[in-house]
Amino acid sequence: MMPLLSDVHTGTGSDTDLLRDKLTLLLDSTGEGIYGIDLEGRCTFINRAGADMLGYRVAQVLGKNMHDLVHHSHEDGGHYPEEECPILKAFRKGESCRVDQEVFWRANGTFFPAEYSSYQIVDGGQVRGAVVTFSDISKRRQAEEQLQRAKAELEVRVAERTRELSAALKQVRQLSAHAHSVREDERTRIAREIHDELGSLLVALKLDVNWMAKRVADREPVAHKCEAMNRLIEAAVDNVGRIITDLRPSILDHQGLIAALEWQVQEFSEATELPCEVEFDIAPEAFVPDGAKATAAFRIFQEMLSNVARHARATQVRIAVRLTPADLVMEVEDNGVGAARAALEASTSYGVMGMRERALHFGGALTIAGARFAPADGMPGTLVCLRLPLAGRDGYKNQG
Prior knowledge:
Blueprint: H1 13-28, E1 33-38, E2 43-46, H2 48-54, H3 58-61, H4 66-70, H5 86-92, E3 97-105, E4 111-123, E5 126-136, H6 138-215, H7 220-247, H8 250-254, H9 257-272, E6 276-282, E7 287-289, H10 291-312, E8 317-323, E9 327-334, H11 341-345, H12 350-361, E10 365-369, E11 382-389, E12 395-397
Keywords: Coiled coil, Kinase, Transferase, Two-component regulatory system
Pfam families: HATPase_c, HisKA_3, PAS
Protein name: PAS domain S-box protein
């Protein structure tokens, strides 16, 4: 424990002077301010660095109440009562303290932010005073303020950039939705033209071949050729019908979304020959989506089933469609090989991205997770779920 300089009295005069000189050199060798106070808060010693920081000579500080001298006011100029001073409260309770959010006042009336620590002086089991070390942390405070300003500026820039990116993303999504809409319109137009023009020509050609066949029945080679031509025309009609359906299923326009989804499930089941557990739960009071929203839901559903057929290697599929007044939920679950998250989130996963973008445009969400039912041969399976909110009357009333 460091003694008070005024209490150094043991030994011969030369020993006392030598000890005092050593203590003075020790105190003056540090760049921090150090002073001691007695139980009344009066200064018993102070080193040169401390006096310089406070703008006093050492002799001007000794014997003065240090709280009244340098700690009398808060940073805003408000009075700092002595009974609230952490230094005096701590050492009188036999405790130590460390504070870095207050100021010390100089002789010229200015102040500086200070960090100080107080440690009690104990002699013979009794507290006789305290030693206080302090330093000017103005540069540190300035650095902290600069850091806060830089952080605030960075947050503003990030917020601005986020708004710009959000606006750009919104424009991209609007462009994507417009592209989907234009594509659907073009598909509808092409399907209609194929139906009206090519379909009519094929029907007329079939009628002509039938007319010709009746007039050459007695000429076997020509009759066989007419029969072969008739079969080719019928195959062409079937292919044209398939192309038209792929371009734009007429059932979607004529019978609505639910009928189109049921038709798509039947087509999938017949094409893949996979066992399908199918559930359609349509609330009578729900409004079935139509227009662009119905088209988006149907195309997403097509992509779900197409992914199962192409990639899943499944032996069982569960399909669920639920329509309530609040939302449309479509789930396709298989017990196949599953898909890695990295593959689903890759920039080249155009099918998944397309489904998500279509869903987001209408405020919906597409999620992909592991299958919930028992997978086959330990394979994880995949569950793809589309949830599309229905705001108010956004379709036609379901009639059950």
